[in-house]
TrEMBL record:
Keywords: Membrane, Transmembrane, Transmembrane helix. The chain crosses the membrane at residues 6-29, 50-70, 76-97, 104-123. This is DUF1304 family protein. The keyword Transmembrane helix applies.
Length: 124
């Protein structure tokens, strides 16, 4: 049961990062203005390329998380999931420190919950 919950969190975190990819790569000057209300409106257009690059990185995180679910070897599946969840958690903590505290809740907390569940499964 714990392993299933951990894998569900991997799916949720992957879907979040697919959303971040779309938002930053394809909707930066439209929908992102509504999501990032504290970001100065006049900076969306000049930072479009920068945001797209950031979105690409979010896509790599999502791809790694999805890949972890497709690995047949149970131990390697957990290792790969832990690596990518760890990357997300570190990015979320850094974002919370440097940009917005909300990033911790949206990005780091789900990843940390997934890590905890995988570790609890391993200890059981």
């Amino acid at each position: 049961m714990i392993l299933l919950l951990a894998k569900i969190i991997v799916v949720v975190v992957a879907l979040l990062h697919i959303y971040f990819l779309w938002l930053e790569m394809f909707a930066w000057t439209t929908k992102a203005k509504k999501v990032f209300r504290n970001f100065p409106e006049e900076l969306f257009e000049p930072t479009k390329t920068l945001a797209a690059n950031q979105g690409l990185y979010n896509g790599f995180l999502a791809a790694g998380l999805i890949w972890s679910l497709l690995i047949q070897d149970a131990l390697w599946q957990v290792y790969v999931a832990l690596f990518f969840l760890g990357c997300v958690a570190v990015a979320g903590v850094y974002g919370a420190i440097t940009a917005s505290k909300k990033i911790f809740t949206v990005q780091a907390l789900p990843a940390l919950m997934g890590i905890l569940l995988f570790l609890l499964h391993h200890l059981a």
